[in-house]
Amino acid sequence: MTATTKKVVIIGGSFSAILAVKILVGSKKTNNINLDISVVSPSDKAYFVIATPRLLFESEKVDDTLYDLETTIKKYAKGTNHSTTYIKASAVDVDLGKQVVSLSSGSKLNYDNLIVASGNRSEHPAFKLGNKTDASYTIESGKELAKSIRSAKSIAVIGGGSTGVELAGEIAYVYGQKKNIKLYTGSSQPLPSLSKSVGNKATKQLQDLNVEVINNRRAKNITKTSIEFNDGSVEKFDLVIPAFKYTPNSEFLPKDVLDKNGYVVTDKYFRLENYHNVIAVGDVISMGVKSLVDLMYFQKAGLENVINYEVFENSSTKLKEYKQPGIMLVVPISKKGGVGSVYGWSLPNFAVSFLKSKDYMISKSADSLS
């Protein structure tokens, strides 16, 4: 049988995009289909952003968390019948009917299959890669933030999720006795998705590090040095750090395939409802819990099957429905440990230390990015 070639475009250059490349070029059931894969990302480096709260204070380790994207995708394609090309650009438009991706460079890419793996971005650019900027911008933003933290005497961290709690803990571990540090959770406790007992444990650990934890006050307007709350009151600080808002990198897609928050709506098999040749995965999709654990242990199996079915046209492949896992969260609160929960079971401090707080998984970053 004569081999055919299909064009696959992947939008994104981090965890989910690299996972998609690995699955595509590693498939054993190619159905005599060779792939011409283009990976589109404004960043030519994949960056282990998970470690940002620690890297703010240990910048000498940043180089250990950066991986050349072109080298990575070519390494996985070597020895296969597939080819990979890295394109440094942003996607600005997708015509789903004509199957064309328009790039910030002005060029256009035709595709047979499209994989949207563009992730989401944070309010503060230090915590996530942006949709139009490269890793160097994120890293420099982190350096500027670290500099501001060093010089500030009063610091407010806004957000009681994992990023806010981790950041407040890291700041306090380094500067706790020298600075006035407040964490505004915006909820009834830190880590509101977890049990009250875990929230209380997090509060105690933060307080032991000299962090003042303030619940049930929601910010209305935020500047670099002030917070206006919903009740109209205003508090001023030397530094205010937003650590609570994420925006999906999906502006290039038609609005009718996005939910009200801009996340991509898919079926249970990661396909767009009316365009099954388009797959979306990772933090950009509306379902899921927006974590590396979810991607690698729950989304991955479904992604493998739908790629075999849609890209390699193996109609005998049984699609695997994605089922959102229970809450699994490991939150370091400094090098001393932290809190966590797996399916409702609270993790002991030593387990959090072993899993993440010891080195923020920097030593294992290559597993997912290289």
From TrEMBL:
GO cellular component: cytoplasm
Keywords of the record: FAD, Flavoprotein, Oxidoreductase
Residue ranges annotated for the FAD/NAD(P)-binding domain, each copy included: 6-289
Gene3D superfamilies named in the record: 3.50.50.100
Pfam families on file: Pyr_redox_2
MF terms (GO), sorted A to Z: electron-transferring-flavoprotein dehydrogenase activity; flavin adenine dinucleotide binding
Family stated for the protein in its record: Belongs to the FAD-dependent oxidoreductase family.
Name the UniProt record assigns to this protein: FAD/NAD(P)-binding domain-containing protein
Annotated source species: Scheffersomyces stipitis (strain ATCC 58785 / CBS 6054 / NBRC 10063 / NRRL Y-11545) (Yeast)
